[in-house]
From TrEMBL, chain A:
PROSITE patterns for this protein: PROTEIN_KINASE_DOM
Known catalytic reactions: L-threonyl-[protein] + ATP = O-phospho-L-threonyl-[protein] + ADP + H(+); L-seryl-[protein] + ATP = O-phospho-L-seryl-[protein] + ADP + H(+)
GO CC terms in record: cyclin-dependent protein kinase holoenzyme complex; cytoplasm; nucleus
Keyword Cell cycle appears in the UniProt entry: yes
Residue ranges occupied by any Protein kinase domain in the UniProt entry: 1-292
Source species: Glycine soja (Wild soybean)
Protein name: cyclin-dependent kinase
Gene Ontology BP annotations: cell division; G1/S transition of mitotic cell cycle; regulation of G2/M transition of mitotic cell cycle; regulation of gene expression; regulation of meiotic cell cycle; signal transduction
This protein's UniProt keywords: ATP-binding, Cell cycle, Cell division, Kinase, Mitosis, Nucleotide-binding, Phosphoprotein, Serine/threonine-protein kinase, Transferase
An example Gene Ontology molecular-function term: ATP binding
Family matches, as Pfam families: Pkinase
Enzyme Commission code: 2.7.11.22
TrEMBL record, chain B:
Residues covered by the Cyclin-like domain: 48-141
Name assigned to this protein: B-like cyclin
Keywords of the record: Cell cycle, Cell division, Cyclin
MF-aspect GO terms: cyclin-dependent protein serine/threonine kinase regulator activity
Record carries keyword Nucleus: no
Pfam families hit by this protein: Cyclin_C, Cyclin_N
Entry-linked Gene3D superfamilies: Cyclin-like (1.10.472.10)
Subunit structure: Interacts with the CDC2 protein kinase to form a serine/threonine kinase holoenzyme complex also known as maturation promoting factor (MPF). The cyclin subunit imparts substrate specificity to the complex.
GO cellular component: cyclin-dependent protein kinase holoenzyme complex; cytoplasm; nucleus
Coiled coil feature spans: none
Gene Ontology BP terms: cell division; G1/S transition of mitotic cell cycle
Sequence ranges assigned to domain Cyclin C-terminal in this UniProt record: 150-263
Length: 295, 329
């Protein structure tokens, strides 16, 4: 078995623990993860979250997912080898101003995101933390890549460490916000996140940006109306305290909030941002929506 | 990210069904490796010893966890044999396979408890953290870090739905018995090379033939008609599993009740008790399944009455059990 330095060479540091490297005529991105310095898991061998994450990444083979190609160990360090994305791939795609000039490009990118989510859900894999920071786009080729903790983020902390991040909250679904602390994620939560990203592509700003779960829920209900037992059966049992509901609000007219969107787009957006997770459209159905006719 | 190991077909996405059948070979020792292993008698005995060790060490844990650990072991052996089968090496491998299985399953066990359990003084050996980590890393590398093992349990619910027994008590009875068969047959080297879906289908057919012989033909047809299943493989696997069941009844008859110390019985006991807690109404079926005399009695009773339909069968099973109890007094 070839050692690390025999297999890969021409190392070029990108950031503290990320390198560009080469094998034959192909470039790769290599990430170093230390598996002995974990405070939480110091006494239990290889940390469980690393095994789980890598195990999932190893299963995936999709053009829109940054691919994990190789895993090597060297003493206390783990070396993750990913496909290399050149400078044409820009991180945090919603900060790219070119996005706003081409309406068709938004549709193309949205389709690729939903196609990827449908692919993952078919394999019983949940994203749980989909947000623009995890998405890279190549505007020239119109190819989008979702970095599932491989490229945009390191493995240096378990998922829980990100739970309190403000960025994460913006894309959390109402059913998750209601039960903040007990993380019972499911596929509708991922679809909600895509809906938020869709809205953000249209408005050029985050759809919801409150710094806390209470404020986020208020923003959500301001736009989509306060849920009732009629619109969301079982919501009163899910909602821990009535305080989270706030005073009853009527939904706004999405057509007026998103004037640039055609009726098909409005229909898709409203279905992705349906408050009730059971009624929310699935990723599998979303990719077949009339809005994507011609993509 | 996370995935659900135990209920991959929960929503029965058509894409998910195709996917699991497609990739299950990646999580099974291949046919070639199976033949290679059979040529090495040393590895066969080593495997038997390791399985026994894993069963002992994990007897207090979920049986599915033990199954997963043994799956890792088999894939590890298929990838590379064991050059130095020293006792402490075997124990380290067993401990590491269990540790990895615990980490992959969404288990509720605190890690400290698992660690204490694995280091119990049975063998008098306590491994350092770094030692276990190195062995874990070695096993992970051999398995190419693909630890989401597809096991027969991934397919049981799918086949039960195919047989038209989803959400029926009869389906639960079959599932319990099939799971028991799957657990016990994992030790058998002859099942190496069969895909998990084939093992699941064969175990369900064995269970249905044993518990519901009149419905067996329709169940066989439902599974054979599935485009995901190779009929010939199911027939071969079915025969092997039946042979295993026969040999097991024979050896258990010889051993009698006094063999409660062996790992097999310990695993059985835990399986029964845990299942009894989960499904109170199905305890009778499990009890019958384990006791040979009662099983024979039940079988004779069933052949006597030409009952049709699912629920009447369940009802009759309970009545017969009552009769058996009364006749003993």
């Amino acid at each position: 078995m070839l050692t690390l330095r025999e297999k890969y060479y021409d190392f070029d540091q990108i950031s503290s623990k990320v390198f560009k490297c080469r094998r034959d005529d192909q470039f790769f991105t290599m990430k170093i993860v230390s598996i002995l310095n974990e405070e939480n898991q110091a006494n239990n061998g290889v940390p469980y979250w690393i095994i789980r994450e890598i195990s999932i990444l190893k299963e995936l083979d999709h053009i829109n997912i940054v691919r994990l190609i190789d895993v090597m160990t060297d003493g206390p360090d783990l070396f993750l080898v990913f496909e290399y994305l050149d400078n044409e791939f820009q991180a945090d795609f919603l900060k790219n101003p070119k996005m706003f000039m081409y309406p068709q490009m938004k549709k193309e990118f949205l389709y690729q995101i939903l196609n990827t989510v449908a692919y993952l859900h078919a394999r019983k894999i949940l994203l749980r933390d989909l947000r623009p920071e995890n998405i890279l786009v190549n505007v020239r080729t119109q190819v989008l890549k979702i970095a599932l903790f491989g490229a945009a983020r390191t493995f240096e902390a378990p998922l829980e460490a990100y739970s309190s991040s403000v960025g994460c909250l913006s894309y959390r679904s109402p059913e998750v916000l209601f039960q903040f602390g007990c993380e019972k994620y499911s596929t509708p939560n991922d679809v909600w996140a895509v809906g938020c990203i869709f809205g953000e592509m249209l408005l050029h700003r985050p759809l919801f940006s409150g710094p806390s779960d209470v404020e986020l829920l208020d923003e959500i209900f301001t736009l989509l109306g306060t849920p009732t037992e009629e619109t969301w059966p079982g919501v009163t049992s899910i909602c821990g305290t009535c305080a989270l509901m706030g005073p009853p609000q009527q939904p706004k007219d999405l057509a007026k909030e998103f004037p640039m969107l055609n009726p098909d787009g409005l229909d898709l957006l409203s279905k992705m941002l349906c408050l009730c997770p059971n009624y929310r459209i699935s990723a599998e159905d979303a990719v077949k929506h009339p809005y994507f006719k011609g993509v | 990210m996370e995935f659900d190991l135990e209920n991959p077909f929960e929503n029965l996405h058509s894409d998910a069904v195709s996917y699991l059948f497609l990739i299950e070979s990646d999580h099974t020792p291949s046919q070639n490796h199976s033949q290679t292993l059979k040529a090495r008698d040393l590895d066969i005995s080593v495997r038997r010893e390791l399985i026994s060790l894993i069963s002992q060490l994990s007897c207090a844990l979920d049986p599915v966890l033990s199954y997963l650990a043994i799956n890792y072991l088999d894939r590890f052996l298929a990838n590379q044999g064991i050059l130095q089968p020293k006792p402490w090496v075997l124990r380290l491998i067993a401990v590491s396979c269990i540790s990895l299985a615990v980490k992959m399953m969404r288990t509720e066990y605190p890690f400290t408890d698992v660690q204490a359990l694995l280091n119990q003084s049975d063998g008098g050996i306590i491994f350092e953290t770094q030692t276990i980590q190195r062995m874990e890393a070695l096993i992970l590398g051999a398995l190419q870090w693909r630890m989401r093992s597809i096991t027969p349990f991934s397919f049981v619910a799918f086949f039960i739905a195919l047989m038209g027994l989803k959400d029926l008590p009869m389906g639960q009875v079959l599932k319990n018995r099939a799971s028991e068969i799957i657990f016990k047959s994992q030790r058998e080297i002859r099942l190496w090379g069969f895909k998990p879906s084939i093992i699941a289908a064969s175990a369900l057919l064995c269970a249905s033939h044993e518990l519901f012989p009149f419905q067996y033909p329709s169940f066989l047809k439902a599974i054979s008609d599935s485009s995901y299943v190779n009929k010939e493989s199911v027939e071969q696997c079915y025969k092997v599993i039946q042979d295993i069941a026969i040999e097991e009844e024979y050896s258990s008859a010889l051993n009698g009740v006094s063999s409660s110390d062996t790992p097999i019985n310990v695993l059985d006991h835990h399986f029964l008790s845990s299942e009894s807690q989960k499904t109170n109404g199905i305890t009778v079926a499990n009890t019958i399944a384990v006791s040979s005399p009662l099983r024979d009695l039940k079988r004779r009773k069933i052949t006597g009455c030409g009952c049709g339909g699912n629920n009447p069968t369940i009802h009759n099973s309970r009545i017969q059990f009552s009769h058996a109890k009364e006749s003993e007094k």
